[in-house]
Each structure stands twice: as C-alpha cells, then as structure tokens.
C-alpha cells in the first residue's frame, strides 16, 4: 500500500507472500523447542530466557540459599567476561554459571556462603560425612535441573564444575586422625570439563569461592592467588578434555586478576 498508494493496485502474489511469512514466524516458535530437544542444542532465545534471574528455579535458589545465589551471580559475571575474551559462547557459560550450584538448595547451611551465624553445621559431623554432603551437591544439582527441564548443555556445567578435584580441607582433617584414609573418598565423581565453556566455569568458580579467604588483598597477592589455583587445576589434568589452549588459559587468568582487583577496589600503591 505504501508503494502503490491504494488497495486496488496491490500485487496479490507479494501480499500473499507477506502473509505466509508472518504465519511462518508464528509457527517457528514450537519448532525451535522440538529442534533443541531432538539434537541436544540450545538456542540463544532459550539461553536468554534461562538467564532471567526471576525464573522459578533461580528465585527458589535465592530464597533457600541466598549466599550461593550471590556467589553464582559473581561467577556468572567472571565467566561471561572470560568467555568474551577468548571467543567462547559467553551466553551459554553465563547460564551455566547461574545454575551450577542449584544442588546446594538441599542443605544450604552446610556451605559456608550460607552460614549467617557462627554455628557451623559441620562441627557435629565427621570429615567423611562432611565431604559426602559437599560432594553430593553435584548429584542433587543434576536431579533438580532435570526436574526443572533444564537443557543437557546447561546440566553439563553442573556435572563438571568440580571435575575430579578433592574436598581438600576435609581430606586433610581426616588424614590427621587416620593416615590410611583413601583420597578417593574425598574426590568429586567428575567428569572433568569437556568444552572451553565448562573449563572457564571451573576456573571462575574456584577463584571466586576462594577469594573470600583473601585478607588484606593487594595486586601481588591477587596475581599469585589466581596463578596458584588455576595452575593446580592444570597439574591435576582437569582441562585435558576441554579443548582449551594454554594461551586461552592465560587470557582467562588475566581477566580474573583484573576483575578481582575491581571487586576489592584496589588502588595504586604509592611509595611512602
């Protein structure tokens, strides 16, 4: 009508094509869902919906485990920035980071970020029992994610974010009492990360969680701290299946150092 000026001069074939195109757009929405389920893929549209912190599952996490929810938000920001730096899927890794610790909703007070008082729930348990609860949050997370119909690619982040690492604190605590303790009893079941995105999440999760223990952080302390954590993961072979290069790991380290310095509001150290 804009081109011809009146209804009589409309091209019927062009008008019909326009109507069919509009209908096709409406019908494509359910087809995207079917396509994702058939081929195990996740579209940007689905990721955008999952990243909404007002979604049912994330609101439940915020209510039951507020400390874990805040930790997940911080990890998501670190992971997204790291993914952008090396050209990985930033939206996917952000969503994975938001949901990676949903399993902590089952027993929130057994995780330090949710302990509002000086009472520690682990004081009444043996190191072996404590480690079992800590490790179990991965399995619980997978179960919760499946009940809430999260895509498999998002569940992969829950499954791999600790890889085959060890619950070191409780392992050493048990070893003080029992020299014959098996390290396998304190090890996460895995698997180790198998994509660049899941490897990024493992690095960001470990660094963000451990950063809470930094006292009087300085630029040098943060640099050493990030290097130590990620180098240990590399020595344990956590990134062997993730198709991430040494150069990309160095870039992730650089971003994490920058972000932590911003979080702690470090200033330039002037000579006295």
Characterization of this structure:
The chain has 272 residues and is an all-alpha fold. The chain folds into two domains: 1-39, no CATH class; 42-263, Hypothetical protein af1432 (Orthogonal Bundle). Helices cover 61% and strands 0% of the residues. It contains eleven helices and no strands. It is elongated and about 90 Å long. The mean pLDDT is 90.
What labels describe this entry?
272 residues; mainly alpha; Hypothetical protein af1432; 2 domains; 11 helices; 61% helix; elongated
Span between termini: 76 Å
Q: Please provide the ordered H/E string of secondary-structure elements.
A: HHHHHHHHHHH
How many discrete domains? 2
How many strand segments?
A: 0
Class based on secondary structure composition and strand pairing: mainly alpha
Report the helical percentage. Answer: 55-70%
Strand content: under 5%
Given this structure, which CATH class of the largest domain is correct? Mainly Alpha
Basic shape: elongated
Weakly predicted, low-confidence segments: none
Largest sheet features? none
CATH architecture of the largest domain: Orthogonal Bundle
Q: Calculate the mean pLDDT score and round it.
A: 90
CATH topology of the largest domain: Hypothetical protein af1432
Indicate the radius of gyration in whole angstroms.
Answer: 24 Å
